[in-house]
Specification:
Number of helices: 14
Largest sheet: 10 strands, antiparallel
Bound molecules: alpha-D-galactopyranose
CATH class of one domain: Mainly Beta
CATH superfamily of one domain: alpha-galactosidase from lactobacil brevis
Length: 731
């Protein structure tokens, strides 16, 4: 990117006022030396220059050590509003005296190793900026994870004015780019069709990806993206930044291409309806923005984020084993009783899974939860359905040698519930307007500490009686939201709600640090790293049709590791073979949501073997590196693989999606193997009596051959959906 400066300088020469901005730091002795925030392969360089402002001068491939940096004060790193800013600001402050201008000068820098549970090298650099006139300070924090090539950045805003100030925008991060072209890959969707990839070239002006949904925030847009520089990136080539905002609420990503073709990215909480009144001496801490840069395409960027998430707390206990489970939702919906559940737990044990997860419909007495119209909020077992309570179910599970998990939607309430009757003031709703129901429910006011206590107690009670897993759901957005607790500070609601939620999750994790939990929001509407650090996995979609899941799981795989993406084998689409459904679910964190007692003997045998094989291979699938080989967006022959870090083992998947009659099938080149080693290939997940169909089955090839010539992974016949899984083991 540095190479672009001469052309842009020429452009700038046309305007003499800009000339001033191009004074190299090196020429100005009194400025401190540039600050390099570095990982193994990436450098982000900030420097103090003109007017003692902090400038971003470089972001890209790692600069060689000892290089004399010739850097320019062109892009102010974190741009405040109201002074000389001409484009999208990072921060806008209205001071106690009503003045809405802010200037930020460099004050100092601190570099430290963070405390806490961090594997490997991570360094946190904190740069303090301050306004020369008003007592306002901004701390820019950057934690650089050396081995993962990931940088996490967030901002703290603090002031010492006599009265509160108002923040009207407060980005977590601002980054600047100078390239010939910018290509954005964004991920959008709706219920049942999450994480659809859309690529576009950014043109001048602002492209905004945001949400105003509050709770089920990522329903239509996700806060994760790729930004390719100069030309579109593919899996193995191109300069690309992968970014993700860690915030379980309203977010805003703004990409602004200015008059000089520079791109300014700001990422943070959506300031929409969220002016925040900040008292003196109380820091406003923004969410974290997590990013990585790859000079070799999106695949490497994904692998960096996956490694970071697993090892550096992006997901809870990311390097630990996780239970394979059987869920009852699609098998029973609300229609079950104790005997049926006891039976299902026996089935779960026969299948070979580790845990049975009881979904919605187990609670409520005055208003039993026999459908979604009532009972939400009354977290006591329905006596008529479960006379012996959850305790009995835990006992049955223990007898069957498995664990027991439960569904909760603790942030929500049906108006038809004892909770709503007892605490009407705990519910978000407009006092002077008709009730605005969605799925017959309303949102509890998590900004209220009493509601936080209630939610904590709800979860704690379950975990304290032996429940070993929680599916935490969130089935609606905030609309017509009004908090009785916040009174005049209604514009704090969206922010304080999420902070209240995090407060509860912190408390849950202090008391129950390792219980696995699934993050669900009617599907993947909360797939983001702010929540995921308290959870072991997320539910990407209620749509479990395996064909659809290839796309949905592919989309989320760009930013989240396989051990966090819950993929269940179901009967959503019985026309798809059990093998295809199983092969697709084995791409992520395998689970089942199926009536095991209705399986044929062969289907059960096949599934038992699949669970056994999956558990054996899970260290590779969960901890290995993902290589996306052939995209469903580019053709109907899809392939991907996971490779163990030591390159001794790999699992390779081939999905043929509605292949055409006599479609040409070429070998797929593998990636990530050791060229010098030889690998034995074995096709797995075969139905009893089915012969391996892949010609490479049972053969041994060098990694070099497999990566240069490849192997056949697809069928050329006109069958609608077929699949193969192959194991590669180094000899
Ligand atoms: C949501 C979830 C489903 C299921 C139902 C239960 O829709 O996404 O998986 O738990 O709620 O009501």
């Amino acid at each position: 990117m540095l190479a672009l400066f001469p052309a842009q300088m020429l452009n700038c020469l046309r305007r003499c006022w800009l000339l001033l901005l191009f004074i190299p730091f090196a020429a100005v002795a009194q400025y401190p030396p540039p600050i390099a925030i570095e990982t193994e392969h990436v450098s982000l360089v900030l420097g103090v220059g003109d007017k003692f402002k902090l400038y971003q001068t470089y972001l890209g491939p790692k600069l060689a050590a000892g290089e004399k940096l010739v850097l320019y004060s062109r892009h102010e790193a974190y741009v405040p509003a109201g002074t000389d800013n001409l484009f999208e600001p990072a921060l806008r402050v209205i001071h106690a005296d009503g003045n809405a201008s802010l200037a930020l000068e460099y004050a100092d820098v601190k570099i430290e190793k963070p405390l806490g549970n961090v594997i490997g090298d991570a360094t946190t650099t904190t740069i303090r900026l301050r306004d020369p006139h008003y007592p306002v300070e901004v701390l820019l924090h950057f934690t650089a994870y050396f081995r993962e090539d990931v940088i996490k950045t967030w901002t703290e805003i603090i002031h010492h004015e006599k009265k509160p100030v108002v923040l009207t925008s407060y980005a977590s991060a601002m980054l600047h780019f100078d390239a010939r072209q910018y290509w954005l890959s964004q991920f959008h969707g709706d219920w049942g069709e999450e994480a659809k990839q859309q690529d576009s070239q950014l043109t001048s002006g602002i492209k905004v990806i945001d949400t105003k949904l509050g709770t089920r925030a990522g329903w239509y847009q996700t806060p994760s993206f790729f930004l390719a520089l100069n030309k579109p990136a593919d899996e193995t080539s191109g300069e690309v930044l992968a970014g993700s905002l860690a915030w379980t609420g309203n977010f805003r990503l703004a990409f602004e291409v200015d008059n000089q073709e520079s791109l300014r990215l700001s990422a943070g909480i959506n300031p929409y309806a969220s002016e925040y009144t900040l008292p003196a001496n109380q820091p406003f801490v923004t969410p974290e923005f997590i990013f990585t840069y790859s000079a070799t395409g999106k695949g490497q960027a994904s692998r960096n984020l996956h490694r970071w998430a697993r090892r550096q707390g992006g997901t809870l206990d990311g390097t630990q084993p996780r239970p394979v489970l059987l869920n009852n939702w699609e098998a029973t919906f609300f229609n079950f009783d104790e005997a049926r559940l006891d039976g299902l737990m026996g089935d779960a044990a026969r299948l070979g899974v580790d845990l049975f997860l009881l979904d919605d419909g187990w609670f409520g007495n005055k208003y039993p939860r026999n459908g979604d119209a009532q009972g939400l909020g009354d977290w006591q077992e329905t006596k008529t359905k479960l006379p012996n309570g959850v305790g009995h179910l835990v006992q049955t599970a223990t007898k069957e040698g498995i664990k027991f998990g439960i569904w909760l939607e603790p942030e929500m309430v049906n108006p038809k519930s004892e909770l709503a009757e007892a605490h009407p003031d705990w519910i978000l709703r407009q006092p002077n307007r008709p009730e605005d129901l969605y799925r017959n429910q309303l949102v509890l006011d998590l900004s209220n500490p009493k509601v936080q206590d209630f939610v904590f107690k709800t979860v704690d009670e379950q975990l304290s009686q032996g429940v070993a897993y929680v599916k935490w759901d969130c089935n609606r957005m905030i609309s017509s939201g009004y908090s009785q607790y916040l009174g005049k500070d209604q514009s704090h609601l969206y922010v304080d709600y999420v902070r209240g939620l995090y407060n509860v999750l912190e408390r849950v994790r202090q008391k129950h640090p390792h219980v696995p939990m699934m993050l669900c929001a009617g599907g993947g509407a909360r797939a983001e790293y702010g929540g995921l650090k308290y959870f072991t996995e997320f539910w990407p979609s209620d749509n479990t049709d395996a064909f659809e899941r290839v796309f949905i799981q592919w989309g989320f795989s760009n930013f989240f590791p396989a051990n966090t993406i819950a993929c269940h084998v179901t009967n959503w689409n019985r026309q798809q073979t059990l093998k295809f459904r199983t092969d697709v679910a084995m791409m992520g964190k395998l689970g089942y949501d199926i009536e095991v007692d209705k399986m044929t003997a062969d289907e059960l045998k096949f599934s038992q073997q699949a669970v056994e094989d999956y558990k054996r291979l899970s260290p590779v699938i969960w901890q290995g590196d993902l290589f996306r080989l052939r995209s469903p967006y580019e053709g109907n022959q899809v392939a991907l693989m996971y490779v163990a870090e030591n390159q001794a083992q790999a699992v390779v998947y081939g999905y043929s999606l509605h292949t055409r009659f006599l479609e040409t099938v070429l070998p797929t080149r593998l990636q990530g193997l050791d060229p010098a080693r030889r690998y034995r290939l074995t096709e797995i997940n075969l139905l009893p009596g089915q012969k391996a169909a892949l010609p490479a089955h049972g053969q041994t090839y060098s990694g070099d051959y497999l990566m240069k010539v490849g192997v056949l992974l697809h069928n050329s016949d006109a069958q609608p959906l077929t699949s193969h899984i192959m194991e590669a083991t180094a000899e």
